[in-house]
Amino acid sequence: MYVAVKGGERAIANAHAFLAEERRGDPAVAELTTDQIRGQLRLAVNRVMAEGSLYDPDLAALAIKQSRGDLIEAVFLIRAYRTTLPRLGSSRPVETGAMACVRRISATFKDAPGGQVLGPTFDYTHRLLDFKLLAEGGVPDAPQAVASTALTPHITAFLNRDGLIQDEPACDTTPPDLTREPLELPASRALRLQALARGDEGFILGLAYSTQRGYGRTHAFVGELRIGMVAVTMEIPELGFAVDIGEVEITECETVNQFTGSKTEPAQFTRGYGLVFGQSERKAIAMSLVDRALRWKELGEDFTGAPAQDEEFVLSHSDNIQATGFLEHIKLPHYVDFQSEMELVRRLRTGAMQPQEAAV
Amino acid sequence: MSGRKIFAENFSDEAQTKEEFSPKILGSAEPLLRVQLLTKLYGTRIGCADVSFDLYPGEVMGIVGESGSGKSTLLSCLAGHMAPDAGSVVFQTKAGPRDTVTMSEPERRMLGRTDWAFVHQNPRDGLRMGVTAGGNVGERLMAVGARHYGGIRAKATDWLGRVEIAADRIDDRPSAFSGGMQQRLQIARNLVTGPRLVFMDEPTGGLDVSVQARLLDLLRGLVRQMGLSAIIVTHDLAVVRLLADRLMVMKSGRVVEQGLTDQVLDDPQHAYTQLLVSSVLQV
Amino acid sequence: MTAQEYNFAYLDEQTKRMIRRAILKGLAMPGYQVPFASREMPMPYGWGTGGVQVTAACLVPEDRLKVIDQGADDTTNAVSIRSFFQRTAGVAVTEATADATLIQTRHRIPEAALTEDQILVYQVPIPEPLRFIEPREVETRKMHALEDYGLMHVKLYEDIARHGQIATSYAYPVQVEGRYVMDPSPIPKFDNPKLSDSPAIQLFGAGREQRIYALPPYTKVVSLDFDDHPFVASKAEHDCDLCGSDASYLDEVIVDDSGGRMFVCSDTDHCGGRVALGHRGRLSPARAEDAA
Predict the structure, then answer these.
(1) Which residue in A6, B168, B246, B265 has its CB near the most CB atoms, within 10 A?
(2) Cβ-Cβ contacts under 8 Å for C71 (sequence gap 6 or more)
(3) C-alpha dist (Å) from residue B259 to A300, B47, B269
(4) With a cut of 70, which residues of chain A have pLDDT below it?
């Protein structure tokens, strides 16, 4: 005998309890602390801050703990929290030229003022699992040197001095805020960069990779990659001057790309730009490649049909919270619509089979 | 004897405005289309410069020249696909004369759905390849409010017949058609709502000779039956000989000779026209 | 974070104002998709954030809220959304359509006729009716602005040419007051007639796609069709096996593994109400008692 399906509320409550138990895991094993996550899974924390568009390593660590390590789920928690925060104002643009670089490299020049500083990078490690890490143990202190106070000007400034690379025209217009206004196409470069900065690392990585393989080729060189702390400065109207309100760690990448020029206009290199919270190199570099690919129109290039050049495609699908929400929504009940599709298919099949039967 | 004029490389405006062209038999006093000093530049390079002419209802104008002469640029500017740098294109809409260069996009798009039609050189540019032949022909009807499926289908079938496509192909996609059939389908799709002015860009380009001949015959018949005005761009003098009442010869973006087709082709005055005419194989 | 630390119905007043402006614009241009700055909500995009934001912007403390999904109050997502508003707004909730002042729904319109005192909020996944014919937003925006809907009818023509009938069974496109073509959200086409001339205010929220649209009361809404292939609001040819209704939309339920099926009203409140009034269907438990 049919009993109408009930008990959704109880099912949800039980599911949440089961989830909490799974999150904690074996009670005999020490519980993860957010300090551990913040300190020892720093790159995960960075990604969550970047895609959550919120610089707060403690909150990001908490989100990672709550989401059981699912970083997109953690980004979701941060985004939902961010929405509730009051807006106090906007800072001045950060001065990345004054960054205290912990890492700074350039592929375009062997050396430059400020030097090539490798910093804490995986780049030249051998990817061999280190079984020593299974046990806890001390790590020997890394050798120290006196911190350099040398200026580290942007490499592209040198190219710019000789006119070899296109200028980035200064602009004081406040860009629209994607979290406060709906996305409108066509988008300005500022809006595109904003979307890319908070876009899914995997998606943007894939698009960037595609540009290196011929889908909208831009011949990118890493002009400069720098990672370090920058001061955040804000005008305080009541005081009448600007105050440093804190500092954030960011990754900045400038790529030097294929030159443009013609018989009438001298050749110049073109640029791509990436800027991300925390040490997030892969994302920053990928972002600059995709930024450059999306600039085809203003640089007078052809649209070759490459996905990375298609502004609407890139910007509509780069937000992983939108993407996962819609993807996973197909788990929700759809039986009403499915019912109407079934009725339609049944009707069409009856219609199609009748002439066959009549022929027989 | 009127209707013919030769232009030196640098002609004067005065000579142009004193032009007299005989209106077509369907005889309206007002030109359907009046083009004045239409100019399009690409930096310092001339796309087309200072083109002027009148087109009367029922007239077919041919524009000929070699590649690079500016004829395709001219057609794009006339049809509203490209914005000219100077000049006007005044069309007699149902609501009176309007300069289509200064029209808003919505108005231009409406014009493109009703009074105007554009036949592309490559039929794939003028058809929906993922839609059946019937759907392609019916689209303009539906866009202006046709809501009876049977009626739309009947009209589509009728038009397929008029362009010599078998009625049983109505549910086939254009990708299943030969190049000549695709071109005829494109023509049907454009003419089904009875536009008053048709632009054609190399309508027989890419088709083999016998297919071309059949298409030209078809076009000639339709143009006469429907009293269409048309502007046809082509490099093929046989096309203009068969279809066009009048002719403009273009070189380096400028009109070097215009007049009645037969007169210009049989007795070309400008050196370039003479070159064009003489280089056509006499069959 | 406890519920007390949030504003009434979760959204801050600025945000609610922004959403209300979008709603008013939508009501002034029935069927037109108004862009709005959708907020990140605590439930995922695609799970009703648009509907939740519209509801949050409309709720007042005196409201009685009903939330349904697939026509039922007890489906998991409806439960989740209803409890969200209980926590953040503290409004009274109800399962009875007639008692509700605001109804948020996914994929169905309630069977009971609505009144002028009610607001119906629809959850919308893809607001653009032309989306699957023309993927580019820049182009579809132009088509709406220019009333260039030929392509929509071409799609219906193609359906008939291929299948003999229009092959859309849900999210069936409609034209509003003879102007905008609109997607009524993935309701079965059986529900389409209820859209037109409703005494209630109907609001449509698409959070991820950032659009709001609306139908003010007593608006003319016509399902697209051809004169000789008219729109039919069809449903399964059965009666409800629990309450006997022959006029309500039915869910098909598989009851055993030899393909046995039964049909029950998708609208649980409607069905329960009929049963309470004594109506019976083929498989009603009470039938045996009647016979005794």
Answers:
(1) B246
(2) A336, C107, C108, C110, C249, C251, C265, C266, C267, C268
(3) 40, 22, 11
(4) 1-5, 261-264, 355-360
CA distance to A345, B139, C63, C164, per residue, from B135 (Å): 23, 6, 50, 14
Name which of A6, A186, A328 is nearest C44 (Cβ-Cβ): A328
Q: What distance in Å separates residue C273's CA from the closest CA in chain A?
A: 14
pTM of the model: 0.82
Lookup: tokens for A37: 């996550």
> Are C108 and A333 an interchain contact pair (Cβ–Cβ within 8 Å)?
no
Residue-wise pLDDT for C80-137, tens only, equals: 999 999 999 999 999 999 999 999 999 999 999 999 999 999 999 999 999 888 888 8
Q: What is the pLDDT of residues A36-53, one digit of tens each?
A: 999 999 999 999 999 999
Sequence-distant (6+) residues with CB within 8 A of C42 are A80, C10, C84
Residue of chain B with shortest Cα separation from C225: B147
Catalytic residues of C: 31, 240, 243, 265, 271
**Pick from B106, B140, B152: which is nearest to C157 by CB?**
B152
Residue matched to tokens 């109505």: B170
Q: Which chains touch B (3 or more CB pairs under 8 A)?
A: C
Q: CA of C178 to nearest chain B CA: how many angstroms apart?
A: 12
Q: What is the ipTM of this complex?
A: 0.81
Residues 213-242 of C with CB under 8 A from B: 225-229
Please state, in angstroms and rounded to a whole number, the distance separating the CA atoms of residues B148 and B153. 8
Residue among B38, B32, B33 at smallest CA distance from B16 = B38
The rounded distance, in Å, linking the Cα atoms of A143 and C269 is 73
CA pair distance C211, C224, nearest whole angstrom: 22
The answer to whether A344 touches C169, Cβ cutoff 8 Å, is yes
Closest residue on chain C to B112 (Cα): C148
